[in-house]
Amino acid sequence: MKSFADSLHVVGLWNAKFFAEDLFRESFASDFPVPPEVSSLSTSARGADWYQYVAFYKWSEASIEPVGFCNWIRHGDAYLEGGMCVRKNFYRRLSRPHWQECKLRGGIAQIMMDTAAEKLNDCAAWFGHCGDKKALSVVTRFGYHLTDRPHVIVKWFRDMPTERKQELIDQVAALGPF
Could you give the count of Cα atoms lying within 13 Å of 150 in the half-sphere of its Cβ? Predict the structure, then answer.
């Protein structure tokens, strides 16, 4: 049997709809967040500020399943993290050794955030909008903190003056849920 680490692969994509649409719909009962097409006279970038990560689990040589998804959107000096979801029955289907290794690593959501943080750390902070207690326990292990705004959480990547931190929190809170 392959190890859990050899069976799980987290991939960053521009648009993960093909792989994660069903998972997202199962989790949120809403349409998948598709990055917009961006074009101008000088550029033709496709959703240059959007990053979507999918966790794939390889059950066998013939069976690979998307089991996790999350979306990050660049907003000024921050990334807005949203749409984090994990296949509802995934953990129950894991073998005991794989479940134990996954748990030691913090679970699929934690692993996706760890992977994304390797690339998406060129900012002051990540922000999330979280009202779910279980999700909050996961993101706080990763370093998110509650703010003075309902449901707005933040993980700082840089030291900065308290006033600047509050400005960023206010800007993100003004966006509403994302």
Answer: 3
Tokens of 155: 């993980």
DSSP 22-68: HHHHHHHSS---PPPB---SS---BSTTEEEEEEEEEEETTEEEEEE
Domains of the chain: 4-175 (3.40.630.30)
Residue 128 one-letter amino acid: G
42, pLDDT greater than 70: no
Tell me the whole-structure pTM to 2 decimals.
0.90
Q: How many residues belong to the chain?
A: 178
Per DSSP, 106 falls in state T
CB neighbours of 30 closer than 8 A, spacing ≥ 6?
Answer: 24
Cβ atoms of 134 and 109 within 8 Å: the answer is: no
pLDDT digits (tens, 9 = 90+) for 118-169: 999 999 999 999 888 888 888 999 999 999 999 999 999 999 999 999 999 9
